[in-house]
Write a structure and sequence with these properties.
The complex is a heterodimer of chains A (230) and B (124).
Chain A: H1 2-24, H2 31-46, H3 50-62, H4 64-70, H5 72-77, H6 79-84, H7 86-110, H8 115-121, H9 128-137, H10 142-166, H11 172-194, H12 196-218, H13 220-229
Chain B: H1 2-30, H2 37-50, H3 60-68, H4 70-79, H5 89-117
Helix pairs in contact in B: 1-2, 1-3
The chains are: A mainly alpha (230), B mainly alpha (124).
Chain lengths: 230, 124
Amino acid sequence: MTVAFGLIGTVVIFYASKWLYARYEKIWLSPLLICPLILVIILLTTGTSYAQYNSGADILSTLLGPATVAFAVPMYKNYALLKKNALAIFASLLVGCIVAIVSSLMLALAAGLNNDMINSLVPRSITTPIAMDISTIIGGDPTMTAVFVIVTGLTGSIVGPIVIRTLRFRRAASKGLLLGMGAHGCGTSKAFEFGELEGTFSSLAMIVAALVSIILSETFFPYLAKILLS
Amino acid sequence: MKTVQKVVQIIVQTIFIWGFLLVGTWLSSALHLQIPGSIIGLLLLFLCLKTHLIKLEWVDAGATFLTGELLLFFVPAAVGVIQYDEIFGIIGIKLIVVIILGTIVVMASTGFVAERFAKGDAAK
């Protein structure tokens, strides 16, 4: 029963929230916010554990793997445009990755969080498997990082469109790159709502940001951490 | 009938794409790479398309489905957040504020640099 609910319940509630979101177009009605919220309420009120729920819903998480691979297709289709924007892609993502590290450190220090938490926060805008690896490299807790990654994704898919509107970014490249850089796959999914070009740039941002972050975590981060965290 | 065909096509293509993930995962562990299997799988699929080893039609429907429904695949992980007590209470509020502000700064800076250098798409 719970196994069936985990899968079918998630799918049904997800499409219902998607319909609701399309109908009213309110940012806080984002399916990634409403759908988990409803599920959490159901789990809490019925006394179902997350493990029980996840025994059915797990297959959906598994699909994240092939979904990541599938981003090769829009990249192949828009290869010419990506090549033409190589400089924009590389420059903006290098800046994004550095800002991600520096801002995490500064903000977390200002908030008075402990070093373990700070190190776990740093890789949060990168896609989960790599974020967890980086967390281990720099001395964070990978499971805590996984939680921060999903919270960042949630936040980013809501905040991203507000940033785009407020700062008046017009180009598909900028919209896509900032969404993929700031909110990994969740941002990329949002970017596809803007259009296929935005989505393609976002998928690439997700991948390049992950690779750049691996390099920075072994070079730039230890240097910065030595200055700030000692 | 058309719909059944379409569904079968999506399932078959999704399994085909999944194959690239398996090869990528295998390569990642066999060669002790820091890069996860999904990213290696993506690069392999891209190279296969680029060299015309596989045709776009073989993966297009499956890829459109997988990338289009991405948010759904994040839902179980988002529900999983309830397992962590750390994110509730005062520390939780601090964490959320740090994450929101951090994400805004990262997105704004990335966007500014990209907007300056981007070219070629329909800027209005």
